[in-house]
Amino acid sequence: MITAVDLAESLGPGLLRVVVPGRGTEVHDIVLAEPDDSTGRPGELVLGTGLAGPEAAAGLLRRVAAAGAAGVVLRDPPAADPRVVRTARDLDTALIELGRHTSWTHLVWLLRGMVDRAPAPDTAVPEVRGTHHDLFALADTAAKIADAPVTIEDAHSRVLAHSARQDTADAARMSTIVGRRVPPQLLAHYRAAGVFRRLARSDDPVMAPAGPDGTLPRLVVPVRAGDEWLGSVWVVARRPVPADRVRELTGLTSVLALQLLRLRAEADIARRLTAGALRTALRGGTPETGGPAGGPPGGTPALPAGPWRVVRLADPGQAPDPRLRLEVWESVARRFGWHQPLLTDLDGLLFAVVTDPPRGGPPGGEPGSLDWLGQLLARTRAPGSGPHAAAGGLARSPAELPRSRAEAEELGRLLTAGRLNRDRDRDRDRDGEDGEDRESPADALVTLEDAWDAVVLERARAAVAAGPGLPGNPLTALRDHDREHGTSHLPTLAAWLDHYGDPRRAARALRIHPNTLRYRLRGIGEVAPVDLSSPRLRLALRLQLAAWE
Fold it and tell me: Which stretches does UniProt call biased (Low complexity) (predicted)?
């Protein structure tokens, strides 16, 4: 589902700005405002062209809301007028502001391209091949104008298209085309020369000096949309490009800017649709399988061959906004080879669907597999900090994905709270003369099979904690005694139950002498006599103690 907010955020603040998000109605068509009382229909985004002022804009909003349309796009000043904004909020209708440097004609072309490529029910997620084809055609046009080879790059130095012409090309150009991005040593050279700084700040073409290893000079023409730098045209300039041809290249960038905006917007819409479809599948839907991730029937993401696991992703140091965290994870996943990551946010948490094929594959696993994710986390995470992940149980059919997601969420809560480490530490010897614990860094990736015992105990602990207190509980007397006399009966009993029959380990866990432990145990028996020889009683006591922790 595409909303007015999705369209605005995909095109970016240089073109559209969300003033009022509205109720999030799906957009399936773009229409111009009509000067009558029947403006818009359900699912239509209305473009408010030629409005006289705030009163006319407010009237259009009222007509659009009455018709159930998806929202209104207005220019400033009406879009920012307090009366218009208040009307949109009162009606819960989306209000989008059009940038002052963007024409209505260009906006219609961009929005229609995005909406038309978005999948209706029972169609595929949109692809951007048509836009890429247009970029290659524009690269060939630029090469004819400049009479030299050309590449079109985005603001991150990634190659989007190149001209077919290869004469006068140098090794750096060939490396850039093959690698789909500018080589690091050449990037450093251009940064040192101030090329990117000038491209980001000015509309004027920049002459990049010759570089190492015989790299020829480049004429670089920035591509902008308003104040936003979208990318640039790089011309191999073995000899100076005549001024009239530079002007032609500069004129071509206005068309190129629309293509780059459309490419970015379509990719963003495809990502949003995939995330939304995956979100539905994890709640209980059934996605298609058997093809590459990225666009099956039914509005759901295609899954690679299973089985799969749902993994909860987390990083305590990241921003609280799940959308920002999702963008970070997507960027990292693509950087390490997962070009169409199956990632989504759900109820403020981030999830991935990864494959978990039988062992025997390549070392590190294929991108998008559980082994690959473990290797990724190991490479990007500092010991004891950074990203961590919790994987639910194996899902052998798409219908089992919600169950795996619930398990991953449950395991992730234990991992985030540190309860997995505490449970493991109870079963691990402490050593050292001063009683210091051994180092126990949190695992970067934990599966349900790794920690099923902790999950079972946590479920039992939660059930005990949720129930009403039972009369006859001997721990109540110990708790009251600790509160009134400052004793440590409860932690002493917990350590003894964790290391039952081994006073030395129990004493080390409490950082006390074994004789002190024996003295405390006698005190416990005096306050609340219990028969610790009973396994059932020991289990009940430990669960109740865990519920109080």
Answer: 382-395
